[in-house]
Amino acid sequence: MYKHLIYILLFGQLFSKNIWAPQSAYLMPDKRWEVGLFHPFRYGLSDKINYSIHPALFFIMPNLSIKLSHYKSEKKSTATRHSVYYPTKLLKMLKVGVAVGDKTASLIPPGFIIPHMIGFSSDYVFTKIYSFGEASFYGGINLGVVIGDLDERTTIDLPLVYHRLGVFYNQYGIDLGVDFSKALTRSIGGYADLDLKLLPGFVGSYSIEHKFLFSWEKSKKTRVSFGYKFVYGKFPYGNQARILPFIPLLESWVPMVDIQWAGSAQNIKK
Q: What is the SS3 string spanning 75-105?
């Protein structure tokens, strides 16, 4: 059950890169908003500043991201992204556990104390528009601030989860990646990425992640995406590869599907 919960909570991570392009250095237009079943809520505060929060996570893991535009032309653009999040409450929930027969199962052993933790991340994004599509390259650093003692036996050794929360045990991590998107028709597009997450010196020091999506844009206000996520990484128990989403109950992979909606606050005012 807790595997289901953690994957649902991090499902937005599968999509949260792609007007519909959060990985791009091109920002959303002024007053435009976007939200999805698993996507964060994003808003164009201006042509220079966008921000986002993940509504489904906000009350159990407060989070905020800001993207700042630094240069923009017809063919290329640069931007920086800055995020902050507080995972302590979520991890305490995962420590409580659930009853399974006469035993209690939990992702984190209940005897450990989860201290206050704050995560910070900043990265630089460069986007170039080619004749064959749009490519974005990024690199950045993640910092994990722990107020108190965090026992390494509290790690959650699951794909996607381990290398994202590992920054709190390792104090820092490095992200590198490239994203590519292309319009195949007026309403159908393709998207692929390749990401490398590094935790230098940590047990389970890297994760390689790849995602491929098709999207159908019904209109400028509605889009449906489906595809897969591949993860290969080093964990305390060894190396592992997995295609996600993986449904533990079915012991099978299923395609990930998301629906997004968009609009403009300017239209609401009118």
A: CEEEEEEEEEECCHHHHHHHHHCEEECCEEE
Which domain covers residue 6, as residue numbers? 2-269
Closest CA to 156 of 140, 173, 168: 168
Phi, psi of 213 (to 5 degrees): -135, 145
β-strand partners of 227:
213, 256
- Count of helices and strands (H, E) across the chain: 7, 17
44: left (phi over 0), alpha (psi -120 to 50) or beta: beta
Helices (H), the chain: 2-9, 11-15, 55-58, 88-96, 161-165, 167-170, 265-269
In angstroms, rounded to a whole number, what is the distance separating the alpha carbons of residues 80 and 73?
Answer: 16
| C-alpha–C-alpha distance, residues 239 and 256, integer Å | 24
In contact, 176 and 195? CB cutoff 8 Å: yes
Give the angle 67-42-135 at the CA atoms, nearest 5°: 55
User: Tokens in use for 64?
Assistant: 């905020």
Residue pair 6/158 in contact by the 8 Å Cβ criterion: yes
Which residue do the tokens 């535009």 mark?
69
The model scores a pTM over 0.70:
yes
Task: Tally the domains of the chain.
Answer: 1
In the chain, what percentage of residues exceed pLDDT 70?
84
Decide the pairing of beta strands 98-100 and 103-105: antiparallel
Q: Which two tokens stand for residue 189?
A: 């597009």
Helices (H), 59-170: 88-96, 161-165, 167-170
Domain CATH number, residue 206: 2.40.160
Q: What is the pLDDT of residues 59-70, one digit of tens each?
A: 888 999 999 999
